[in-house]
Design goal:
- The chain is mostly helical and about 110 residues long.
- The chain has one domain.
- Helices cover about 55% and strands about 0% of the residues.
- The protein has six helices and no strands.
- The longest helix has 17 residues.
Length: about 110
């Protein structure tokens, strides 16, 4: 976690006292158990390499947020960058996906 994300965790503590519905979800759901199920989504982990993939758990969490808050791809792209409670739920990732990546992940997930 870098300095930027560490700086966000303090203001989140105030938000949490006001009642954040996302608090505790990651404690109740073991998202790590999803990882083996999603292992077949990416095929570029060969010697040839390719662009690094986004963590599939991060992408699943983004899709969950999108569903729970009824957000389009452009809306979730914006919201995960600016809402501290969503960033906290996602674990303050170093890099966030854009709307196209979210769409491609959802398509890949539905076909796999």
């Amino acid at each position: 976690m870098n300095l930027y994300h560490t700086g966000l965790s303090e203001p989140f503590k105030e938000i949490e006292t006001l009642g954040d519905p996302l608090t505790g979800i990651s404690d109740r759901i073991d998202f790590g158990q999803i990882r083996p199920i999603l292992s077949n989504l990416y095929e570029n982990d060969t010697e040839k390499g390719g662009r690094p993939n986004y963590d599939p758990i991060l992408m699943v969490k983004i899709l969950l947020l999108q569903q729970w808050y009824n957000l389009s791809d452009p809306q979730i792209e914006r919201e995960i960058r600016y809402r501290i409670s969503l960033l906290n739920f996602l674990g303050y990732p170093e890099k966030l996906s854009d709307r196209n990546t979210i769409w491609y992940f959802r398509e890949r997930l539905s076909k796999t």
